[in-house]
Request: fold
Amino acid sequence: MRALLEGRGDLLLVTGLGSTTYDAAAVGDDDRNFYLWGAMGAAAMVGLGLAIAQPERRVLVVTGDGEMLMGLGALATIGVERPPNLAIVVFDNGHYGETGMQPSHTEARVSLGGVARACGIAAVFDIADDAALGEFAKRLSHFDRTIFAGIAIHADEPPRVLPSRDGVHLKNRFRRALGVE
Amino acid sequence: MKQSALSSEPDWRDEIFAALKAAEIRQIGYVPDAGHTRLIELCRADPAIRAVGLTSEEEGVGLAAGAWLGGQRAALLMQSSGVGNCINMLSLAKSCRFPLTLLITMRGEWGEFNPWQVPMGTKTQAALELMDVLVYRVERSEEAGETVTAALDIAFNGGLVTAVLLAQRLLGAKRWVK
Reply:
């Protein structure tokens, strides 16, 4: 997460229910972060609505494999809309870290990058090491078409940093940061 | 907008569209639906509206939340069967007080041919109200525009989720044999 958000510029961030919300908070809380604490499966769609509403800004969605699996249809919808300012990144540890590390479908054989490609998202990255991650992170400041990246991560449970769970607060501060409140 | 590009004649659906325009709705999430056909066509033909086809209605709740975060207003078009798909997602709108209006064509009531539509159709209003959605119902075509206007007003003035149920009697029963 830190590699992705270093020098984030004016990037807007949406994180999915679970570890990606904690990871983003651990890197540093920011008014331009919208953390989901529920609505499992919604992260990519929140990113789509935001990317359409703010065509001049780049939008980064970071979520986990379990959260993405619950909203797979969103990849089909995004594959049709293809906003040029939307990047979806899945931290894929192959497990449901929030509920006791049960294996997810990606641990078995499902490829989220493969799904994204099949949905018509042309720029798909399968990232498995730090070098590739570093190269990918550089793209986040200047990409100009819809991106999907699956980033393989280890299944562990580092200490959690919990951001605010007050949804109204998170919403209002995000809108104020964008000047639309 | 070219009227000739549309497949049906102007009617009360145009008044709903006018209400959406007056409320400055900029994103429409929809799942294809016979009762909403003309409204979907009107939205798709309007350059100021981004009409996003969804694979499932629940995607629309996320879409609308993202739209509002980015300063745009969104509304969703769906059939009563789709309400069941949205229930958990409505916790997103409720927890964050995202404003949202759902326009719902009813199935499973007057003139329904398909009994599989009945279980969700008869529980649509109760399911929405369990999630604290404000529900309005339209039985007569002349009420459609003003009811949608009222639903949009209270949603966006109050940070609430509202729904307008368009009765099956208003829509006309689906013709299965042509």
